[in-house]
From TrEMBL:
This is Glycosidase. PANTHER family: GLYCOSIDASE (PTHR34106:SF5). Gene3D superfamilies: Glycosyl hydrolase domain, family 43. Coiled coil: none annotated. InterPro entries: Glyco_hydro_beta-prop_sf (IPR023296), Mannoside_phosphorylase (IPR007184). It comes from Rhodopirellula bahusiensis. GO terms for molecular function: glycosyltransferase activity; hydrolase activity, acting on glycosyl bonds. It comes from the Bacteria. The keyword Transferase applies. The keyword Glycosyltransferase applies. Keywords: Glycosidase, Glycosyltransferase, Hydrolase, Transferase. Belongs to the glycosyl hydrolase 130 family. Pfam families: Glyco_hydro_130.
Length: 356
């Protein structure tokens, strides 16, 4: 691992006001962050669960067309626990989430990323967002901010798109990658004549290790020309891999962080999530120049090891500070945290492609 610098916890569940009186905040995490003028803006995921407890029953929240969160109560005997986040219906195997997420917008004029102030709430609106909206990534291309996020419904986890010119008003553009596909990050400039994204297919049939793919688009809506970028080859990424932070351009190429997860040690648990780094060619971003053999960040702090889902470091935003990188991440699916790493140390840690 790389030595950490200037690390802090930014937001905790106790800092967040629930969206309804009958809900409690169980996590604020996986933030999208970008610079906008003299301020930083953040879109954080806020996960909520019902406050009411009924012995022998499990509450399963979902967003209704009214804009409020409704609760479906299901007998425990009719459910199988997948992990802390997910249960399965014994009758048909359908999955439900134990919490429902929305996005909250924060801002700060402190360039160290401290003292965030609440701005507004973004709630699910469409049927494909019935079980929540999650894990936004924020990229500025030209004068437009583009936000990818996970839309969860009874049809699965898909990736949807929003845009904004002022980060106050948002236009929704619908689904751009259907279920099951998530962890979509956008490159901050056109490559050739194309918008470019990294994405994570999540197939039910596992022919190979988990993977990250690349896609291109002429208009940000229609995506194709998919290419494999990365296989989860190492033990720390053996269960799943996925894009983390929108790439930044450095002298060597496109630098981005991604997450890897170990296989769970027993049923009903989740493996350990860590962060790795990936260096891609500037002109041919499907070409890997270097990648992490070992994580650059692992869950070692208390707030990373203990939370709604223990042992999670999940990077979702990275700012280029010159010599350092400021990384924002979700810790244990409970908190928003930030840490600085030396950019050169990250680059030096990469296992270079032997063909380069």
């Amino acid at each position: 691992m790389i030595e950490r610098q200037a690390e802090t916890v930014i937001l905790r569940p106790s800092d967040i006001q629930p969206s309804q009186d009958d809900l409690r905040v169980v996590g604020v995490f996986n933030p999208a962050v970008a610079s906008f003028g003299d301020r930083l803006v953040m879109l954080a995921r806020v996960a909520e669960s019902p406050t009411e407890v009924r012995k022998g029953w499990t509450p399963l929240p979902r967003f209704a067309p009214t804009g409020r969160t409704q609760i479906d109560w299901v007998m425990n005997d009719d459910l199988e626990v997948v992990d802390a986040r997910v249960v399965a219906m014994k009758s048909n195997g359908d999955l439900r989430l134990t919490s429902a997420s929305h996005l909250q917008l924060f801002q700060t004029t402190n360039q160290d990323g401290l003292n965030w102030q609440f701005v507004t709430t973004i709630l699910p609106e469409s049927p494909w967002e019935e079980y929540g909206i999650e894990d936004a990534r924020l990229t500025k291309i030209g004068n437009t901010f583009w936000i990818t996020y996970v839309a969860v419904s009874r049809s699965g986890a898909a990736t949807a798109l929003m845009s904004s010119n002022d980060l106050v008003n948002f236009q929704r553009h619908g689904i751009i990658f259907p279920s099951e596909n998530k962890d979509v990050v956008l490159f901050p400039e056109l490559i050739g004549d194309d918008f470019v994204a990294l994405h994570r297919p999540n197939p039910h049939s596992h022919f190979r290790p988990p993977q990250i793919w690349l896609a291109r688009s002429p208009d940000m809506i229609h995506w194709g020309r998919h290419e494999l970028v990365l296989d989860g080859l190492h033990d720390w990424e053996g269960d799943r891999v996925g894009s983390g932070t929108p790439p930044i351009l450095c002298d060597q190429g496109w630098l981005t962080l991604y997450h890897g997860c170990t296989r769970p040690s027993k049923a009903g648990t989740v493996g350990s999530y860590s962060a790795g780094a990936l260096l891609l060619d500037r002109e041919y971003p499907d070409r890997v120049l270097g990648r992490s053999a070992q994580p650059v960040l692992q869950p070692i702090r208390h707030h990373e090891r203990h939370g709604f889902v223990p042992n999670v470091v999940f990077p979702t935003a990275m700012l280029d500070l010159g010599d350092n990188l400021q990384i924002f991440y979700g810790a244990a699916d409970a908190c928003v945290a930030s840490v600085q790493l030396s950019k050169q140390s990250v680059l030096d840690s990469l296992e270079r492609n032997p063909h380069e």
